[in-house]
UniProtKB/TrEMBL annotation:
GO molecular function term, any single one: RNA uridylyltransferase activity
Entry protein name: RNA uridylyltransferase
Record region (Disordered): 1-28
GO biological process, any: nuclear-transcribed mRNA catabolic process
Compositionally skewed regions (Polar residues) per UniProt: 15-28
SUPFAM superfamilies hit by this protein: Nucleotidyltransferase, PAP/OAS1 substrate-binding domain
EC category name: transferase
One of the Pfam families matching this protein, by short name: PAP_assoc
Location(s), subcellular: Cytoplasm
Essential cofactor(s): Mg(2+); Mn(2+)
GO cellular component: cytoplasm
EC annotation from Swiss-Prot or TrEMBL: 2.7.7.52
Poly(A) RNA polymerase mitochondrial-like central palm domain residues: 50-180
């Protein structure tokens, strides 16, 4: 059985910890979590306004959003000339509310493929877009999800277009609906994603975690708070259903009815951010546990049959996709990168606990040369 190792402290991590201010170590507050009591500095709330300023700075501007809309309008005109019944769907971070002004645009072309192949259709789409003067159009047909990649000169957006990736469209809607229930989810996930990018643990090509995985981790964390901040939408009577290749995507999407769901929980973004990092640094059982927003609770690796490595799927940090439930978002993490990720969680928890100005040190970019 391949399980996550307990991370060893690197010398740089130890140095970070040794140079932290010790002045605040005795000032603590107890915060109740689903796993029991843990201690947090009593003045953690004083950092909330700085964290909220960072969050506000990450939100896409209105100009960014209007450029995105114009791009989709242009693409729709190009596509429907050739395929009148086709539909374009935005998906991913540009559409699920968790994007920034740096987010690229991901588009799904929903279309009846008919007698041709998906590759032929992508090649034809690339031809059409070149003819309509889009820039740097390239059909990448050998990728795991084949795409047409292009650049929109008017907005400078990079845009990837895939065919019939409707599971991604469904989980985009799910995340967008969760984001409308309690504003603390957007705050927490945006800050965690920003931290992960700066610290070099948001790069799937390096064996770390995707932005999507971090958002699921934040949703799960808020489902597990006491009192709960988020409900489990898939455990409720479904009001939205879409079937994609025999996979049923169903959940309660009347989220306007749930706006006060987490009102009993008064935790600030500073308390939640510290507790998130503390959970992933010290409380999560990497050997046994899978986080599941579908169930709204922790489930076991044994139940998922994710206890051993199969092919390249290592299951060292297990994050269940809410609809494609056989898909572990952490499967690409290996023994080296799980150690790096866990050290970064420990560093973040310690910075928030001990540092005089954690809103600076927490987001210091990781220097790969050191």
């Amino acid at each position: 059985s391949e399980v996550a190792e307990t991370p060893k402290k690197s010398s740089s991590s130890s140095t970070d910890h040794n140079t932290m201010s010790q002045s605040n170590q005795s000032r603590r507050l107890q915060i109740r979590t689903h796993t029991g009591w843990m201690e947090c500095r009593h003045d953690i709330g004083t950092f909330a306004s700085s964290l909220l300023s960072i969050y506000e700075s990450l939100k896409p501007s209105e100009e960014h959003m209007s450029k995105q809309s114009r791009l989709i309008d242009s693409l729709t005109k190009s596509v429907t000339k050739e395929w009148p019944n086709a539909q374009l769907h935005l998906y991913g971070s540009c559409a699920n509310s968790f994007g920034t002004s740096h987010s690229d645009v991901d588009v799904c072309l929903e279309i009846e493929i008919g007698t041709g192949s998906e590759v032929e259709l992508l090649l034809r789409l690339a031809e059409i877009l070149r003819g309509d003067n889009f820039d740097s159009v390239e059909a990448i047909t050998s990728a795991r999800v084949p795409i047409v990649r292009m650049l929109d000169a008017g907005s400078d957006f990079s845009c990837d277009i895939c065919i019939n990736n409707l599971l991604a469209v469904a989980n985009t809607k799910l995340l967008k609906d969760y984001a409308q229930i309690d504003g603390r989810l957007l705050q927490l996930a945006s800050i965690v994603k920003h931290w992960a990018k700066l610290r070099g643990v948001n790069e799937t090509y390096r064996g770390t975690l995707s932005s999507y995985a971090y958002v699921l981790m934040c949703i799960s964390f808020l489902q597990l708070r006491e009192p709960k901040i988020l409900p489990c939408l898939q455990a409720m009577e479904p009001t939205y259903t879409m079937v994609v290749d025999d996979t049923e995507c169903a959940y309660f999407d009347e989220v306007h009815q749930l706006r006060d769901f987490g009102a009993e929980n008064k935790e600030t973004i500073a308390e939640l951010l510290w507790a998130f990092f503390h959970y992933w640094a010290f409380q999560h059982d990497y050997r046994k546990d899978v986080i599941s927003i579908r169930m709204g609770k922790i489930i076991s690796k044994k139940e998922k049959n994710w206890t051993t490595r199969i092919g390249n799927d290592r299951h060292l940090i297990c994050i269940e996709d809410p609809f494609e439930t056989g898909h572990d978002l952490g499967r690409i993490v290996d023994r080296q990168t799980i150690r790096i990720i866990r050290e970064e969680f420990e560093r973040a928890a310690a910075m928030l606990q001990h540092d005089d100005d954690p809103c600076v040190t927490l987001f210091e970019p990781y220097n790969y040369e050191n």
